[in-house]
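Good morning,

Attaching, inline, the backbone tokens for the sequence recovery test we're adding to the shared suite. The designed sequence is right after.
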């Protein structure tokens, strides 16, 4: 299972990379705006900076919503670094753009997936990744993890190469349940990954080991 971090914050990306378990980064226009990255030159420079930190795929999202615009933007993004994955929204022109980039051997991530039908269309168009937003489905009392299960079944039925990238992950249980279902990748905040390492009995046990050692050794 791959771990991606879902942020454009360079310090957090570096911290996750230094942990030694990071496989890639996902960004989106909201995350770039949150870091105050505006204007095409700055956006492209920021993607280059992210690629310099991580060993793995870096999803960079197009802003255009028409086929020609997505192709134009995607080609500029893909030329930045071989780690770049062109992130394309699940809309009709987006499906055409997925097919275009798939034919050219450029990796893609189809974003804003909220149904199994959308995931199937993206896989048919040759997407490298599909990004079902499980947290946003949970937010509206819909079963985000159930969607991961459905997509897993469909992709396995037909041996699609498209990887399931569970996005909008909010907490460690999302990661654990995605691992049980067989999602190929999760992307989420550093806090969710760090929470996987925590257990109160580990802290209590370590404190006791250290106290016993100190007592025995003066
Ligand atoms: O990057 C796409 C997705 O992970 C967004 O997550 O937390 O904004 O729903 P969130």
């Amino acid at each position: 299972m791959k771990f991606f971090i879902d942020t454009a914050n360079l310090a957090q990306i570096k911290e996750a990379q230094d942990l030694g378990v990071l496989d890639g980064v996902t960004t989106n226009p909201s995350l770039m705006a949150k870091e105050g990255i505006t204007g095409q030159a700055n956006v492209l420079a920021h993607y280059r900076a992210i690629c310099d930190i991580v060993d793995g795929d870096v999803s960079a999202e197009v802003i255009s919503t028409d086929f020609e615009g997505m192709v134009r933007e995607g080609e500029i993004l893909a030329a930045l670094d071989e780690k770049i994955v062109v992130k394309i929204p699940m809309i009709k022109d987006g499906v055409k753009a997925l097919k275009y980039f798939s034919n050219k051997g450029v990796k893609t991530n189809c974003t804003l997936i909220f149904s199994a039908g959308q995931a199937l269309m993206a896989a048919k168009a040759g997407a490298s990744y599909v990004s079902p937003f499980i947290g946003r489905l949970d937010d509206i009392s819909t079963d985000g993890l159930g969607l991961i299960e459905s997509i897993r079944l469909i992709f396995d039925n037909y041996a699609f190469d498209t990887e399931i990238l569970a996005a909008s992950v909010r907490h460690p249980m999302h990661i654990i349940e995605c691992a049980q279902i067989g999602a190929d990748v999760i992307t989420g905040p550093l806090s969710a990954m760090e929470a996987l390492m925590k257990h109160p009995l580990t802290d209590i046990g370590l404190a006791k080991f250290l106290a016993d050692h100190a007592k025995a050794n003066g």
